Amino acid sequence: MRVLVTGGAGYIGSHTCVELLLAGYEVIVVDSLINSREESVRRIEEISGRKLEFHKVDLLDKSGLDRVFQQAKVDAVIHFAGLKAVGESVAIPLQYYKNNISGSLVLFEVMAQHGVRNLVFSSSATVYGDPASLPITEDFPIKSSNPYGWCKVMIEQILQDLYLADPSLNIALLRYFNPVGAHPTGRIGEDPKGVPNNLVPYISQVAVGKLPELKIFGNDYPTPDGTGVRDYIHIMDLASGHIKALEKLAANPGLVIYNLGTGKGYSVLEMVNAFAEASGKKIPYKIVERRPGDIASCYADPSKAEKDLFWKASRDIKAMCADTWRWQTKNPNGYE
Ligand code: NAD
Ligand code: UFG
Q1: Whose C-alpha lies nearest to ligand 2, atom 20?
Q2: What phi, psi does 228 have (nearest 5°)?
Q3: What's the gap in Å between 83 CA and the centre of ligand 1?
């Protein structure tokens, strides 16, 4: 089976490509490298011991994408490509809507022209906003408070409409909670450009001495220790969720939606302590104001994915921190 992976050079895409190759799929990666490096593709091949097809093509380049589909004989698409920084999306909304929405529209058009009916889409727990209760199930209402999140909500809606128009399509909307960690070899991992926005890459750069201290955004939330609680999921568990979703699509399920999380929330302070233990480093931190737009707590009810996909996250926060730390220490400057 031939799977085209948009954004396959990025963080989640690269780990998923390793799992796809190891499971025997033929993999075609389309990535503009706007937020990644081709070195990750080389390392995917190194870890898996298999070759993939790489095309440096932007999704906005319809004729370029069309050429890839003409050659590739694609059976299914996993669509990761998109810009993903919430704060940046507030500052430059037009670029987010253009890249993420227009890019997706071009992809869906080219898929339709080539008769490709199977799609896995990277959505996000961000579509649940500030949920009315916890844990979050897939039937909670979806909304957003920033352009990044609106892109996810809108692309989900576009896919719902495409499915309504053509029920022979098979589409899995995967709502990821907070992906962290790296491949256990330490050869691929998250390589944020500039100062990281997300907690775990930030802690990791403090631990390695690249950043002086962590700023904890608020300790007055209604959580056990006052700091924000999230459902962190190991990137390798997330990657295997995509294989399970592809297997599900093969059974013609129509449009399906799954939370990919562990079901367990950890606070910022719990993550800091777990990381200090895994790395043997002190993580200096200071409590600062809440970050605008942040919510107190967010964690999944992942039972639907467990029941339908036979998928369950198995790696704990020890593994998440240890694998992040291995990647960080082996690659202090990422893929550079
Ligand atoms: P990433 O930035 O590491 O990977 C995205 C990849 O897409 C990059 O390699 C980038 O170069 C590529 N890309 C972006 N726009 C493109 C375009 N127009 N054409 C071709 N390639 C393009 O991000 P990631 O963390 O791997 O996220 C992958 C997907 O998962 C994204 O859609 C993201 O919104 C979603 N997601 C991520 C998280 C997270 O915390 N990392 C959480 C929920 C959902
Ligand atoms: N935090 C800090 N200091 C930091 C960074 C984060 O205290 O320097 C705190 C946040 O306040 C929050 C927690 O750590 O309580 C996690 O923050 P992240 O930025 O790592 O993750 P978010 O839950 O805010 O958002 C992430 C992605 C979104 C995605 C969402 C759900 O950035 O794109 O997970 O998948 F939608």
Answers
A1: 198
A2: -60, 145
A3: 6
Cα–Cα dist 18/50, whole Å: 9
Which atom of ligand 2 is the closest one to the Cα of 229?
A: 15
pLDDT tens per residue, range 186-208: 999 999 989 999 999 999 999 99
Rounded to an integer, what distance in angstroms lies between the CA atom of residue 3 and that of residue 256?
Answer: 19
Q: Specify the residue with its C-alpha closest to ligand 2, atom 29.
A: 126
Active site residue 148: yes
Residues 92, 95, 101: CA angle, nearest 5 degrees: 130
Structural domains in the chain, sorted by start: 2-180+232-263+300-306 (3.40.50.720)
Q: How far is the CA of 224 from the centre of ligand 1 (A)?
A: 32
Return the H-helix or E-strand segment holding 55.
strand 53-55
pLDDT tens digits, one per residue of 273-304: 999 999 999 999 999 999 999 999 999 999 99
Per-residue pLDDT tens for 229-281? 999 999 999 999 999 999 999 999 999 999 999 999 999 999 999 999 999 99
Eight-state DSSP code of residue 211: S
Answer whether 270 contacts ligand 1 (Cβ < 6 A). no
Q: Please say whether the beta carbons of 266 and 230 come within 8 A.
A: yes
Give the pLDDT of residue 69: 98
CA neighbours closer than 13 Å in the CB half-sphere of residue 38: 7
Cα 176 to ligand 1 centre (Å): 12
pTM, rounded to two decimals: 0.98
Chain length of the chain: 336
